[in-house]
Structures are given as C-alpha cells and as structure tokens.
Amino acid sequence: MKKTILFLILQQFADWEAAYISSALTMLGQGQYEIKTVSLSKDPVSSIGGFQVLPDYDTASVPKGYEALILIGGMTWRSENTDPIKELVEECCQKGKVLGGICDASAFLGTIGVLNTVNHTSNDLNDLKQWAGASYTGETKFIAKQAVRDVNIITANGTAPMEFAKEILFALQAASEEKISEWYNFHKLGFYTAPMPRM
Predict the structure, then answer these.
(1) Above 70 in pLDDT, residue 199?
(2) Of 108, 21, 12, 104, nearest to 70 (Cα)?
(3) How far apart are CA 142 and CA 40, in angstroms?
(4) CA 46 to chain CA mean position, Å
(5) How high is the mean pLDDT of the chain?
C-alpha cells in the first residue's frame, strides 16, 4: 500500500515549490509514495509558470488515509475562500500527520493559529503579524531561517524550496538521513561541486 502525499494548490501556485518535494519522494521513496493534488474544486488550476493541473481531489473529497499535507505557496492565498482549507489543516494537525507550508501558505498557517506553539518561519514576520492579526501569537517562536521543522510541522519562506523539501523528507523519514543529505547537497551545490547522490 502506497503512502499518499497531498499537495494543496491554488490558482497561480508556485510550481517550483512543489517540484523538488514530489520528485524527491519519487526518486528516494522507492515506490512507497503516491503524489496527489488537492484544490478548492476539481477545476483546472494554473501555476505561475503556466502549467495546468487537474486536481485529484477537492477539499471535500480528500481521503482520510494520507501521510502528509503540503501547502504550496502562490499568488492567491489572500484572495481565495480558504475556509475549507482551514478545516483540512486542523484535521491534519489533530491526526498528527506531517504538515508543510511554504511562502504565503506558511503565513496562512499563522492566520489559523497553527504556528502559535511551534517553531516556524515565513516570508516576513511583520507581514505574517499583519495578515494573521489576533490569530497569531507565536512571534517568540519565529525563526529567521530558510526552513524550520518542529516535529511534524514544516515552514519555509518562498526562496527555500530545496530546504523545504529536505525538511519534509526528514519528517517523513522518506530515506536515510545520509541519502536525503546527499540529494539536497547535489541539487543545492550543483553537478560539479557535490558528489553524485546514491539513489
């Protein structure tokens, strides 16, 4: 039985923020994961880069048995009706599943109180505080770092797709720490600097 990883995407999502994670899970996971997409509806979703995705699920039809919910950043997190996503995130937290949010999706987690008790990061603390308002009381837990993992919750700023992917791989224990680090170093440092990773 494959483990399902859900990628939540909205219109104008940042496709590169999802690509490293999904490809790493496929390459390092040795067939144990299946990648599925979720959106507010099953209508096609267009990425910033122009890719069109037909979501596997809408928020009302998400399967109960999944390993991780990964919220991908983009341009419309502040303009869409995100109430159904809030319910999905809360259920994910209650079940103790891996939860990830990058770029504006990380700030969205602040708007629903998820970041108040865990170490976290986002694009900008002041922006996070302004958008989340009274729902966000976790300022002392904010770390100015590319990506932060606190148990099962991973956050990252929008310039950190590689770091975000690495922390999710660690949280899922998708491969040995050595293999994950090799994968990260190879893609981060480049072909001529890092040794070829052993898949």
Answers:
(1) no
(2) 21
(3) 29
(4) 18
(5) 95
Interatomic CA distance for residues 88 and 31, integer angstroms: 26
Amino acid identity of residue 82, one-letter, is T
Question: What are the tens digits of pLDDT across the range 1-58?
Answer: 899 999 999 999 999 999 999 999 999 998 999 999 999 999 999 999 999 999 999 9
Q: Report residue 98: phi and psi, to 5°.
A: -70, 130
Whose CA is closest to 158, among 108, 102, 110, 119? 102
Structure tokens that stand for 58 in this block:
């809408």
DSSP state for residue 153 in the 8-state scheme: E
Alpha helix ranges (H) inside the chain: 15-28, 83-95, 104-111, 125-132, 161-172, 177-189
Q: Strands 57-58 and 68-71: what pairing? A: unpaired
Tokens of 112: 């629903």
Looking at the annotation, which residues are catalytic?
Answer: 103
